[in-house]
Amino acid sequence: MKAFMIERYGDRDGGRVTEAPDPQVGADDVLVRVRAASVNPLDLRIRDGGFKAILPYRLPLVLGNDLAGVVVEVGSDVTRFAVGDEVYARPDKDRIGTFAELIAVHENDLAPKPAGLTMVEAASLPLVALTSWQALVERAQVQPGQKVLIHGGSGGVGTVALQLARRLGAHVATTASAAKADLVRELGADLVVDYRTQDFEEVLDGYDVVLDTLGGATLQKSLRILKPGGKVVSIAGPPDADFARELGANPVLRQAMNALSWRTRRRAKRQGVTYSFLFMKADGGRLGELTRLVDAGDIRPVVDRVFPFERTREAMEYAEKGSARAGKVVVAMG
């Protein structure tokens, strides 16, 4: 099969489409012919070696963390899918590789593709939809009437998180440029802060939840706009000990991750709020529930641009430069 592979970390010009062995299909696996796969910041961080200490992938490595496609083979123990089914997924973190013609995915990580979406649209959703659900519903436990700030409302996670927060009945604020204000309002934002001309810390106060997609100074300011008991859930900030435990990391690595987030957690405690780092998990069952929200019209995909598979590296460069107007960049297999 053809696949987009990197041979070493940190080589931004080194990824290329090449021949790779077809995947091995285990008893619980589903072999999917990939029709489309989307680009995520996670792909860029993996390529650059940002997770090599905690996600020790073998090189050469096929990148890609989202897919939509068609089942072409099932393992002997698979019961939920059959050849010909249209599916989508975020594979488990240990089994990435959706920038390829074929991928073997554990049955539990797959869900039926939303009937009303194209393959391109469906491929844009799994990682960001699961991230939004796990952050807002499972981690933050957002309730109707709560005030929620979602940073980067026009980004991949932001466009879905806005819609989910609205569905949960929250009062939603977001940061975005003035050019994207109409879009994010349409997706669910009640209040838009133009990050180019306004400091959100001076505009917002008394929030219950912040979904931080940016990290750095944005994360530190976010702690200060929360009311006592508020929560920051970050997908871009420093990892914490809970994440290390989820990974099954050794004591040395757990201590190192705890140290990385120590200052942020201390600042949060002083403010009377909490900080947690989220690295989303693959979950086909939950993705199936999100499919129902998509089919009901509560969540819709936002796709910025589609690249052919042969131009996967260009697609990643486009996403990395922040060229996307809003939503996701998708690679179509043709």
TrEMBL record:
Q: Which Pfam families match?
A: ADH_N, ADH_zinc_N_2
Kindly give the Gene3D superfamilies that the UniProt entry links to this protein.
Medium-chain alcohol dehydrogenases, catalytic domain (3.90.180.10), NAD(P)-binding Rossmann-like Domain (3.40.50.720)
The record ties this protein, via InterPro entries, to: ADH-like_N, ER, GroES-like_sf, NAD(P)-bd_dom_sf, Quin_OxRdtase/zeta-crystal_CS, YIM1/Zinc_Alcohol_DH_Fams
Give the top-rank taxon of the lineage listed in the UniProt record for this protein. Bacteria
Which UniProt keywords are present, listed alphabetically?
Oxidoreductase
Q: Where is the Enoyl reductase (ER) domain?
A: 10-331
Q: What is this protein called?
A: NADPH:quinone oxidoreductase
Species the sequence originates in: Streptomyces ambofaciens
